[in-house]
Amino acid sequence: MFFNEPEPDFEKVCTLEELQESRGLKFTIRDIDIAVFRIEDKVYAINNVCTHLHKSILCDGFIEDGYVACPAHGWQYNLADGKRPGGGRGIESYPVEIRGTDVFIKVSSKKFKF
Question: For a designed S-S bond to 82, which of 54, 91, 105, 107 qualifies (C-beta 3.0 to 4.6 A apart)?
Fold first, then answer.
């Protein structure tokens, strides 16, 4: 019988001061590329891989009206939930907690069903 170690709840990725307004930063948690953005008083965390090119480039995207646009071709993803406008394949979004000035993100590992 194998036992899985419990997943950490939230993991610290940076401080608020490290996040520039409307500019993304890339972090990796358990082999998952994550783009983190600070927009006014909110911090968002989404998967950094664009579903069109399958490249880790969304952290370099352009922010407008609550969406990040891929810098390669302009596909947009909602910062709050990862969905694309009008439907289509979206990306994962991740819960964010601010503790003092520290930014924490929760990433759950994929569960395999047998």
Answer: 91
Q: 0.70 exceeded by the pTM?
A: yes
Rg value, the chain, Cα? 15
CA 49 to CA 60: how far, in whole Å?
11
- CA 35/CA 86 separation, integer angstroms: 22
Q: What is the 8-class DSSP label of residue 9?
A: S
The structure tokens listed for 2 are 């194998």
Q: pLDDT, tens digit, for every residue of 46-102? A: 999 998 888 999 999 999 999 999 999 999 999 999 999 988 789 999 999 999 999
* Residue 15: strand pairing partners: 102
